[in-house]
Amino acid sequence: MSPAAFSLRQQLAFYGAYHSNPTNVWIHITCVPLIVWSAYVLGSHLPRPEALPSIHADFGPYLAFDLNYAAIWAIATELYYFILTPVVTLAHIPIAAFTLLTATAYASQPGSLWTAATVHVLCWLAQFYGHGVHEGRAPALLDNLLGALVLAPLFVHYEALFMLGFLKQTKKDLQNDVGKLNTELRLKKKEVKKE
Predict the structure, then answer these.
(1) Which of 22, 27, 122, 140 is most exposed, with minimal Cβ within 10 Å?
(2) Which helix (H) or strand (E) holds 133?
(3) Does residue 63 register a pLDDT over 90?
């Protein structure tokens, strides 16, 4: 893994460079949480790895925990976020936990696999629409699949914090970094056209 993978500023700037259009940002703010939730539902349908202990807990009819692939992904992602940005991650953990617990509980319902798959596909299509029509640029996942998939929820969390008026200096720094990256991209496109 490159050192840039552990630089919050570089990671947010990379992702932000692909999400400058306000309509596209709103599409992502809506769709990314639904994609994560539906992915957790889908991941909860996978057979539990035999190497893992069987841990299950119900917290009422709408919240449940299973140590499964979805839980492993959620925990690993939050640990990565914590390395990048401890304080912001502490604010994100309750959201991530709620998403995982509701998805795990929903996964036990009849028809949950098809519902989650439908939500997942529709949200991905909406994001491609946002990039193609509003952003005018291919999604970040075409340049860095893992980075885009892992960073999307954190980026959306930051966008929500910015909209609520938090982290003003971080927002300003990020906008400057995104501006520089977009300028570099435009210059590269001009060079390619000249050749």
Answers:
(1) 22
(2) none
(3) yes
Q: From 44, 49, 4, select the one nearest 144 (Cα to Cα).
A: 4
Lowest-confidence segment of 36-40, 60-64, 85-89, 145-149 by average pLDDT? 145-149
Tell me the C-alpha distance between 153 and 113, whole Å: 22
- pLDDT at position 141 over 80: no
DSSP assignment, residue 49?
A: P
- φ, ψ of residue 57 in degrees (nearest 5): -145, 135
Most distant pair of Cα atoms in the chain: their distance = 63
Q: What is the pLDDT of residues 73-88, one digit of tens each?
A: 999 999 999 999 999 9
Domain range for 97: 3-194
The pair of three-digit structure tokens given for residue 157, joined into one six-digit string: 């969390």
Q: Which residues fall within 8 angstroms of residue 68, CB to CB, at 6 or more apart?
A: 43, 44, 46, 48, 49, 52, 104
Please state the domain count of the chain.
1
Q: Please give the distance of CA 191 from its chain centroid, rounded to a whole number.
A: 32
Per-residue pLDDT at 195: 63
